Amino acid sequence: MTSGPQVARLLTLVPYLQKRAWVDVGTVARDFGISPGQVLRDLEVLVMCGLPGGLPDDLIEIDLDVAREEGVIHLRNAPVNRPMRLTTDEAVSLLVAVEAVRETADADTARAAQRVIDKLSALVGQTPPVSLGVDAGPPDVRTALAQAIDDGRRVCLTYDGAARRETTTPLVDPAGVEVRDGVAYLIAWSLDRGAWRTYRLDRIAAVEDAGQPADAHGSPPAPAGWFDEAATNLVTLDLAPTSQWVAEYYPTRKVQKVPGGIRVTLAVGDPGWLSGLLLRLGPDVRAVDPPSAAAAALAEARACCLGDDLE
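Now predict its structure.
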C-alpha cells in the first residue's frame, strides 16, 4: 500500500525520469532525499501504474533488473503523458451537456457552445447534432437576463403566467437559470412577494433594467422549480381517461389505474400551478386529495360561473 508522501513522490518521479534518459539510482536517491532502497521500492510501484485497460503500452515501463543490478534507471514508456481521448459515449454525453448550455445561454455563449458542438459532432459522427428541445425562451430574453445576473442588476419582467392566466410585471433580483424536465427557469428574488420564485423563460416576454442594483438575498433554495423532489405537498388526482396525458407530461410520484380512469400523485411546489392545471382539466378531475388543494381552483371556477363542472 502506498503512503501519501510516496504518491506525491511518484507523481514527481515520472517527469523527472522522462527528462533523463539514464540516471543512477544513487542520484535519484540524493535528489529526492530518500535511500536507494526506497527508490527501488518506488520503481516497483511505478511499473504497475499507467492508463486503464491493462494492455502492454498502457503501463509505465522500467527495467527493474537493470536498476537493481547495475544501479541505472531507464524509463521507456510513460503513457500518462498521452493526450486524453474521449470515447464515443463520453463525447456524446459531453455533446448533450454543451447542447443544453447552447439552448439556454445568451447569444455570445451560445455561439461559443455551437463551435464546441460542431467539433464534438465531427468527432462522434453525430449528424445532425443532438437537439434537446429545451423550452428556454427567445435569445434576447436570455441575453438580457445573463447580463443582469453578471452585472448584479434588478430587472422588471413581462411575464405571461399560465397558473393565473394573466400577464404580470414582477420586479425581481435574478440569481441564475436552471433546466428541469426540459424547461429553463429563471431563479429570482421577487420584490413583491419577498421570497424566491421561479419563472419559465419561455413565458418571459421582455426584460427591462429597473435602474437599481440587485440586493443580496443569500443562496436560492435547491432544488428550485415547480416540482421539488423534496416537497412534502403531495396531491393525488383521480382523472378521466381523456386526461391520461397528465401522467406522461408532468413528473409524478405514483400512477395507478382506477375504475373509470387513472390516479396520479404529484409533488406540487406551486399551488398556483396546480390551480391552473385543475381549471384546464375541468370535468376530467374526478377527485382531489387532499380536497383543500382544489380550494383555489374551485373559488376561481365559481367566480367564472364554472363551479358546476368542478364539483
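The radius of gyration is 30 Å.
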